[in-house]
Amino acid sequence: ELGDYSHYMQKEIFEQPQALSNTLEMISGAGQLQPGIFGAEAADIFPQVDSVLIIACGTSSYAGLTAKYWIEQVAGIACNVEIASEYRYRQSVANPKQLVVVISQSGETADTLAALHHAKAQGHTYTLAICNVPESAIVRETALRFITRAGPEIGVASTKAFTTQLSALFLLTLLLAKANHRLSEDDEKAYLDELRHLPIAVDKVLALEPSIQAWSNHFANKHHALFLGRGRHYPIALEGALKLKEISYIHAEAYPAGELKHGPLALVDSEMPVVVVAPNDEMLEKLKANMQEVSARGGQLYVFADGGSAVKPSDGVHVLQMPEHYGLLSPVLHVVALQLLSYHVALVKGTDVDKPRNLAKSVTVE
Ligand code: M6R
């Protein structure tokens, strides 16, 4: 089943262009989005929604956190993200006009399912599941649903499920923006074109594998790594750090780069590689100032730049040049590069990539 691949994780990373085009098949020829792709009731529910609450665990929660940036910017609707194991036991204030979105690859994660039950018990009726398994428990219990078509994900480290979740959440963003009268027809067409082009853009990132692999030796003998990002790429830094710790057992932490001075800068020395997600977006200049703070303390920077980022390699500054900047959807491209980084570091370390110690693919107990 693995074909030419050495591990399921590697296969699943490389399946992402196909997983994305399968998930986005319904927009292949569409000039306009229809809410029905989220279920028959979506056309009635979306115009009523006054805020969004996203609930998930692990990687799925980072998809939610990325979507928070999209939903607030594009749809102009307040969005919060909660970890399911916290939300389910927390005394929260329910708002019946809030759309509760649960995200889960498996659809069987105990905490996410319990959090959904908790939301419903509190009176939430606008519920939506984004899930990769159509017959799973979570999907059966929500008013609305969107099934990602990543195909079976075997590797414990989530890869193609994440990027397809992001594509689903971008569709949700556009539909909420439409319902909120915040999306012009021209913008809708432009965003749909970008989504349709996404598989090709991901292919170009996959082609960078040899250069990313070349960095793996710099990480494999380290005990710690720091990941930095800002704005919609901060959740991508979180996901990159999770991938690295999960499969290579290197302690990795992610911070929004603006937080450096508030503590983590004290950790920086030449023994702790600092990975920076540095696309050419509106936060780039701020991020460059943060990189300077790291360099000034002898830190080693590993920068994932893209078209126009103009970060120059120098002593202690390693730069991977990604393709053209991809605007709002750029997180989808940058995470693929970080997946490849963690995969290759794990290969050098010789860990069990597909079945990391102590972890299960689906966490069906609390
Ligand atoms: O199936 P789910 O999306 O609900 O799973 C949630 C997490 O357990 C999962 O994303 C976990 O963090 C992965 N192992 C990350 O790679």
TrEMBL record:
<dbReference type="GO" id="GO:0097367">
    <property type="term" value="F:carbohydrate derivative binding"/>
</dbReference>
<dbReference type="GO" id="GO:0004360">
    <property type="term" value="F:glutamine-fructose-6-phosphate transaminase (isomerizing) activity"/>
</dbReference>
<dbReference type="GO" id="GO:0006047">
    <property type="term" value="P:UDP-N-acetylglucosamine metabolic process"/>
</dbReference>
<feature type="domain" description="SIS">
    <location>
        <begin position="215"/>
        <end position="356"/>
    </location>
</feature>
<feature type="domain" description="SIS">
    <location>
        <begin position="42"/>
        <end position="182"/>
    </location>
</feature>
<feature type="active site" description="For Fru-6P isomerization activity">
    <location>
        <position position="361"/>
    </location>
</feature>
<dbReference type="GO" id="GO:0006487">
    <property type="term" value="P:protein N-linked glycosylation"/>
</dbReference>
<protein>
    <recommendedName>
        <fullName>Glutamine--fructose-6-phosphate aminotransferase [isomerizing]</fullName>
        <ecNumber>2.6.1.16</ecNumber>
    </recommendedName>
</protein>
<dbReference type="GO" id="GO:0006002">
    <property type="term" value="P:fructose 6-phosphate metabolic process"/>
</dbReference>
<dbReference type="GO" id="GO:0046349">
    <property type="term" value="P:amino sugar biosynthetic process"/>
</dbReference>
<keyword id="KW-0315">Glutamine amidotransferase</keyword>
<dbReference type="GO" id="GO:0005975">
    <property type="term" value="P:carbohydrate metabolic process"/>
</dbReference>
<keyword id="KW-0032">Aminotransferase</keyword>
<keyword id="KW-0677">Repeat</keyword>
<comment type="subunit">
    <text>Homodimer.</text>
</comment>
<comment type="function">
    <text>Catalyzes the first step in hexosamine metabolism, converting fructose-6P into glucosamine-6P using glutamine as a nitrogen source.</text>
</comment>
<keyword id="KW-0808">Transferase</keyword>
<keyword id="KW-0963">Cytoplasm</keyword>
<dbReference type="GO" id="GO:0005829">
    <property type="term" value="C:cytosol"/>
</dbReference>
